[in-house]
Amino acid sequence: MKYVFIEKYQAEFSIKAMCRVLRVARSGWYAWRLRRYQVSPRAVPP
Questions:
Q1: Residue 2 and residue 22: Cα distance in Å, rounded?
Q2: pLDDT tens-digit profile of 6-43?
Q3: Spatial contact of 37 and 27, defined as CB atoms under 8 Å apart
Q4: CA dihedral for 11, 16, 19, 24, sign (positive or negative)
């Protein structure tokens, strides 16, 4: 997945450049990153 690639190489290349080359929106990348680290309400036991 493109977002995983961006996450892996963000220390070496700029997010802006990778998003442009991979043809993904930066807003999509940042939204994916936020969702990835948030806990779903369904994942929390009652």
A1: 7
A2: 999 999 999 999 999 999 999 999 999 998 887 777 76
A3: no
A4: positive
Q: What does the block give as tokens for 6?
A: 């961006």
Distance CA 26, CA 36 (A): 15
1: exposed, middle or buried (C-beta count within 10 Å: 0-12, 13-18, 19+)?
A: exposed
Question: Looking at residue 37, what is its pLDDT?
Answer: 80
Query: What's the rounded Cα separation, in Å, for the pair 1 and 26?
Result: 15
Instruction: Report pTM.
Output: 0.75
